[in-house]
TrEMBL record, chain A:
The glycine cleavage system catalyzes the degradation of glycine. The P protein binds the alpha-amino group of glycine through its pyridoxal phosphate cofactor; CO(2) is released and the remaining methylamine moiety is then transferred to the lipoamide cofactor of the H protein. Pfam families: Aminotran_5, GcvP2_C. One of its GO terms (cellular component) is glycine cleavage complex. Residues 360-467 form the Glycine dehydrogenase C-terminal domain. Residues 159-286 form the Aminotransferase class V domain. The lineage of its organism: Bacteria, Pseudomonadati, Pseudomonadota, Alphaproteobacteria, Acetobacterales. The keyword Oxidoreductase applies. Keywords: Oxidoreductase, Pyridoxal phosphate. This is glycine dehydrogenase (aminomethyl-transferring). GO terms for biological process: glycine decarboxylation via glycine cleavage system. It catalyses: N(6)-[(R)-lipoyl]-L-lysyl-[glycine-cleavage complex H protein] + glycine + H(+) = N(6)-[(R)-S(8)-aminomethyldihydrolipoyl]-L-lysyl-[glycine-cleavage complex H protein] + CO2. Signal peptide: none annotated. NCBIfam families: PRK04366.1. Its EC number is 1.4.4.2.
From TrEMBL, chain B:
Signal peptide: none annotated. This is Glycine dehydrogenase subunit 1. The keyword Oxidoreductase applies. One of its GO terms (biological process) is nucleoside metabolic process. Residues 15-455 form the Glycine cleavage system P-protein N-terminal domain.
């Protein structure tokens, strides 16, 4: 242990809700006076009668308000080992490039000749992903990893419709450890979902897969390694079995960081895969997008991809968007996708290079196993799949089950208290919780040994506090912008309010009820 | 090798120290789970690394220099992404590292972000006059698709009526979300004709197609062709009589001057968030929203993440926490409402800043300016010999320019405009052949009277 962790204190501005701010008549922005009267230009009855009740503030006051809010965000400002999301450095050179007019002020319907640089970036990055995965074509239309999973279900429908098997092949197989977006997008696309359970080694058995496969199987959608850090060594047999059954194998490469530069999805027998450019490839999280799920597939599936596809004419060296794709499943989102994020991913890949990408995987797996030693030394911490004795991949799932049994305090309370030390609360687990009181740290290649040591020291300290001063941990956080929130009101129809106007109305109704 | 600026532990001594702690003989040994046969036998042929920001930036600037932007040129493109002014402080706030990099956190430690999200929903709720607003979805088309599926879950019906002259991009997304024929849960997408004289929805065709089997009637204001649909009340009445939901798609930037959809009977409102302070970014600015009355039966079908105001341990403060998260796919996997994942939440913060700056007067002024400038542009273009404007009034921002009388195709006109540094309107000839050689022109507050004159003079030269 490297020392005693120190408490921090977050900014606390007591900032009002913006709807309460401002004074009638103040202006944040003004516009030129129209050359002609516009009053008569709105058809009768379509004119807005009551002005929207928006705040009336100066530009300076709006700026300060939102700066205050930004200062009340811990996120990556401390140490965030937020597992499954692969926290990376987001190069600010990309942010600056993203605001240049040649990126920000581009309309998606411009003539191809005016966006040659953009199309070249897309094509170059497509080639990089092909090289990393062995796939034959990528598209970037999906606006996140889940949207890329959805893209796969759409491509699957197109592929089997062309074979006349769409009605017959109505099942998609996944595992309980696969991200919820896999079963959820399969169901949204109209498929029945078959979920395989984990066995002792940490992954479902071949026998369970065989029992699930049939002539109704459309696809397997699975990640590997999973969020426990367990790599399924039988994955090649899995993809073979799926193929024999006539289905498609889709690799959810959300956990690519530990295997990049060592394996290729296509060589493992997968027909398609997706990468999350906002995690593995250095795009900013943004609190949840704009993001990109890059979806790649084999030449056999490529005709069914959403359109358009960016292609290069090797004879002229010019790039264009190919809309003439008769078998395409159409669109999953308007236009070409979040190309400003593709640009950032390209920047990341070029700054890393092949050696850098492999080194990042090395460091990610090294950091995780380094961390494991330290975490398992903390009383109260357990590891998922204790039978699996091998080194884990880039992350491991742990649990505070033993601490909870001893103190009654679990991972939510501990996570809240960790923020008092400047540590972003850890990712727990997707539902269902297979491990009691789960948490999933992932250091990746970004965080330094010192950061990792601090993280572990804080967890150890908070576990001690759970024994020595449980009330203090139970009521944490104490150094955040606000005290612990009431999570029940947002589930109560009489009290939830996603807008200020709803809250005003409900608050008045509750007050009246109380008065009566 | 020199340590990489983005990898703290790439210092050899640190690597060795960490490895020693694990007890493994080598880093390679830590990968023991991956069977030898799974490892690739083919080297990765990737372009050379540009580790120095000096050369990396230079390389990117060379690539970007091959683009021609709407800033250096004069663009009249709209049709789903629009060039509006983005105030400087929007970029300042959306670029703040705290917002840019936050991932999930807690309602307390990331309080500021959650509050900004709530303020996005609250301000948008004022514009669209809805009490329940979800956090944003990927795009307008995705929002419409989600809303149609939501309606179908509410009333169990499987047919949706949409306008015939819809944005083909948006319609393609809606069709995807409604699932192809052959799927058991397919929702049939049926188009309702538009009146060739007014451009508005053909109520006779709507009457012919509405039935007890229709889950929802979807229409837009302004429509894809820019027209203000004035028959909202009649459409809503017909839909409600048949027990169907009324879903209206809007661009909220128009709502300083146009009536919000619930005023004429909308049950669910969807639309774009791009115009509220997001750069076009080649389509990356796209974002969508779903809003409705705050009724439990609607709220319990939302596929979005939702953020609710709530109390905290301290009586004097508010907090903002997730609401109804369990009904999402995060809570219920395949039983959840559609699916939920990363969306455009940073854009939502940009939108919140934009709406706070605008206020009620800003939206009114901007709306009137866009009305005035776009109508002035339509009048001026209609004065070009051989060029006609299909509907000379009753539109917001966009209007249809018909080049059929010039004997030239839109493609030819646009090519000639491009040579003069002007991006002409979107070519409609393939998508809506009934309109002949027509293009959709967008004019916003960024277009000055001089810009409009420059376009008109260029057109006069081209069609001469």
């Amino acid at each position: 242990m490297s020392g005693t962790p120190k408490l921090i204190h977050q900014a606390r501005w007591n900032e009002p809700v913006v709807m309460e701010m401002g004074v009638k008549g103040r202006r944040g922005i003004v516009f030129p006076r129209p050359e002609t009267d516009a009053a008569a230009l709105v058809p009768a009855g379509m004119r807005r009668r009551q002005a929207p009740a928006l705040p009336e503030m100066t530009e300076h006051d709006v700026l300060r308000h939102y700066l205050h809010l930004s200062q009340q965000v811990l996120g990556m400002m401390g140490v965030s080992l937020f597992g499954t999301c692969t926290m990376k450095y987001n190069p600010r050179v990309s942010e600056a490039l993203g605001l240049r007019p040649q990126m920000a002020e581009i309309h998606p319907l411009q003539d191809d000749s005016t966006i040659q640089g953009l199309l070249e970036i897309v094509h170059r990055f497509d080639l990089i992903l092909r090289e990393l995965s062995g796939m034959d074509q990528f598209v970037f239309q999906a606006a996140g990893g889940a949207d890329a999973a959805y893209t796969h279900t759409c491509v699957t429908r197109g592929y089997f419709a062309a074979k006349g098997e769409l009605e017959q092949r109505n099942e998609i197989i996944t595992s309980i450890q696969a991200h919820p977006c896999n079963p959820a997008t399969a169901a949204t696309a109209g498929f029945k979902v078959v979920t395989l359970m984990l066995e002792e080694n940490g992954y479902p058995s071949i026998e369970a897969l065989k029992a699930a496969l049939s002539n109704r199987t459309a696809a397997l959608m699975i990640n590997n390694p999973d969020d426990m850090g367990v790599y399924n060594p039988q994955i090649v047999e899995w993809t073979k079995l799926v193929k024999q059954a006539g289905g498609l194998a889709f690799y959810d490469h959300a956990n690519f960081n530990g295997v990049m530069g060592r394996i290729r999805a296509r060589e493992l027998g997968f027909d398609a895969c997706m990468f999350m450019l906002h995690k593995t490839f250095g795009g900013p999280k943004g609190g949840g997008g704009p993001a990109v799920g890059a979806y790649g597939c084999s030449a056999e599936l490529a005709p069914f991809l959403p359109k358009p596809i960016v292609v290069k004419d090797e004879a002229t060296g010019l790039y264009r968007m190919d809309h003439d794709r008769p078998d395409s499943v159409g669109k999953v989102r308007e236009f070409l996708g979040n190309l400003h994020i593709v640009m950032r991913a390209y920047v990341w890949a070029r700054a890393m290079g092949g050696d850098g990408i492999k080194e990042a995987a090395d460091l990610a797996v090294l950091a995780n196993n380094y961390m494991e030693k330290k975490l398992l030394a903390i009383p109260g911490v357990a590891r998922s799949n204790p039978e699996a004795k091998t080194w884990r991949m880039e992350m491991t799932r742990y649990g505070l089950g033993p601490l909870k049994e001893e103190t009654g305090l679990g991972v939510v309370e501990v996570g809240n208290r960790m923020t008092d030390y400047g540590i972003d609360a850890p990712w727990l687990s997707h539902e269902p919780w297979v491990v009691p009181e789960p948490f999933t740290p992932e250091a990746g290649e970004l965080w330094s040994k010192e950061d990792i040591d601090l993280w572990c020291d804080v967890l150890a300290k908070v576990c001690d506090e759970a024994r020595s001063d449980p009330e203090m941990v139970r009521t944490a956080p104490h150094n955040a912008p606000i005290g612990r929130v009431d999570g029940e009101a947002p589930e109560d129809p009489a009290r939830w309010a996603t807008t200020w106007r709803a809250w005003q109305r409900k608050r008045a109704a509750l007050a009246q009820q109380a008065a009566e | 090798m020199t340590a990489h600026p983005w990898m703290a532990n790439s210092v050899p001594a640190i690597k060795e120290a960490m490895l020693r702690e694990t007890g493994a003989p080598s880093i390679e040994a830590l990968f023991e789970q991956i069977p030898e046969a799974h490892r690739t036998q083919h080297a990765f042929n990737l372009p050379p690394a540009l580790r120095s920001e000096v050369e990396l930036r230079r390389h990117m600037l060379q690539l970007l220099a091959k683009n021609r932007s709407c800033e250096e040129n004069l663009s009249f493109l709209g049709a789903g992404i629009w060039q509006h002014h983005v105030p400087a402080i929007v970029d300042e706030v959306a670029g703040r590292s705290e917002f840019l990099t936050s991932v999930w956190g807690t309602a307390m430690s990331d309080h500021g972000r959650n509050q900004a999200w709530f303020e996005f929903c609250s301000q948008l709720g004022e514009l669209v006059a809805c009490d329940f607003v979800g956090l944003p979805v990927y795009s307008w088309g995705c929002a419409a698709g989600n809303a149609i599926r939501l309606a179908s879950r509410l009333n169990g019906r499987r047919r949706v009526l949409v306008p015939a002259w819809m944005d083909p991009e948006r319609l393609a997304v809606i069709r995807q979300y409604c699932e192809p024929e052959g799927m058991a849960s397919h929702i049939a997408v049926v188009t309702v004709a538009q009146d060739a004289t007014t451009g508005l929805l053909d109520l006779a065709d709507l009457r012919a197609k509405i039935s007890e089997g229709v889950t929802a009637v979807y229409f837009e204001n302004p429509s894809f062709l820019g027209l203000i649909e004035t028959q909202g009340e009649a459409i809503a009445h017909l839909a409600h009589q048949a027990g169907a939901q009324v879903i209206v798609g809007v661009d909220p930037i128009s709502l300083g001057v146009l009536a919000p959809p619930p005023d004429y009977g909308a049950d669910i409102v969807v639309g774009t968030t791009q115009t509220l302070g997001a750069h076009m970014s080649a389509g990356g600015g796209a974002g969508g929203f779903i809003a409705s009355r705050d009724e439990e039966r609607y709220a319990r079908e939302y596929p979005t993440l939702n953020i609710s105001i709530t109390t905290t341990r301290n009586p004097s403060e508010h907090g903002f926490a997730l609401s109804l998260a369990h009904q999402s796919s995060y809570g219920m996997r395949e039983q959840g409402k559609d699916w939920t994942g990363n969306s455009v939440y940073l854009t939502a913060i940009a939108n919140a800043v934009y709406m706070s700056l605008m206020g009620p007067e800003g939206f009114r002024e901007l709306g009137e300016l866009v009305l005035a400038r776009s109508h002035a542009a339509a009048r001026r273009i209609a004065a070009v010999p051989g060029v006609a404007v299909r509907w000379t009034g009753g539109f917001f921002r966009e209007f249809v320019v018909d080049f059929s009388g010039t004997g030239q195709t839109v493609a030819a006109v646009n090519k000639a405009l491009l040579a003069r540094g002007i991006f002409g309107g979107k070519d409609l000839s393939a998508d809506i052949p009934a309109l002949g050689q027509s293009a959709l022109y967008a004019v916003t507050e960024i277009h000055s009277p001089e810009d409009i004159e420059r376009l008109a003079l260029a057109l006069e030269e081209i069609v001469r």
